[in-house]
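Amino acids appear as letters; backbone shape is given numerically. Here is one record.
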Amino acid sequence: MSERKDPGRRKWTGVEYLGIFLVLSSLASLLFWPHALAGLFDAIIKKVFPIVVDIFLTGEVGIAVIVSVIVGRMLERLGFTDALFRVFAPVMKWLSINPAVIIPSVYNILGDINAAGRIAGPILMRAKATKAEQKIAVATMIQSQQSFATFMIGLIALAATGAAVFPVVLLSIFVPLILVPWLLSKTIYRDTRTVELEELPRFTPGTAYLKTVFDSAKEGTELLLLVIIPAVAVVFGVIGLLEYIGVWQPIENAFTLLLSALSIEPATGMLSLLASPTLAMAELQKIAASIDPRLAVGSFVLASSGLPLSVIFGQVPATWAAHSDLTEREAMAAAVIGMLMRLVTAFVIGYFVTPWVV
């Protein structure tokens, strides 16, 4: 007669031990330091509230996000994305690279990094792009901003520095779409070849113009409320926690040293990396006229990318693993390479180019 297993005798898992530790810690805190938990919660709220409410919900930045999505989708409806692809596809062919490689980057110019992966992944597979070419596509896509709002607000900040906007935008957004695929095809990802696309993809939707306006306004509101604000709240909540326990200052100092060395304004650079490039450009707009133009330009270039890091390590790998031949690890590695190249671009344009355009 077999023994029945007692469900109560199941072995403890690691997370259950962690849970018990948290329960005991909370009880000890309530017993010996009754104000500790309340103080921690209060510190987090005070860190998150002014960003979420004052800047996004009741400030100009939230409206700018919605308006920029409307502008971006109207440009897309008027053929802007298709025109860009017509310009860059022959260049890829001339570089002996599958023209489909440029699709996610071109689509991402107007700022939708997740849709870029969902749309471009299947097209790349149908175009028989090699894994190397798909990795090039991911790394190149990271060179474009993941929100058109970042670009629009960034232009205002860039103008405040006194720098010539056209050469900075040309060198930071359009030139990398050619330079990055070429460099990667000659170094890391060499398995590339020229192919003829059987059918050119078309990105201009057939939606009525008035419907495009209202749909894009809804999309902009969803972007603000369901993507940007939650991400910002999480990051600033963690920063509030780290500040409360006294470990944030050394981390902030390390970021400041690194970003300053790369000719990137530290405070806005950290916002781009950790929270929201859109918020970073809104903050840069306030200080652009009073800081070294090289730092402001470097911060603009960094923000005009696939950041924050949650996108690089989370959204991009998940999207591309589901819609291409790449695994999550391969997509993440390509995205990291693209991000490292973006840091180099920010340094080169910020430090060497800025003196010539101010």
Q: What stands out?
A: Residues 43-192+205-357 form one domain.
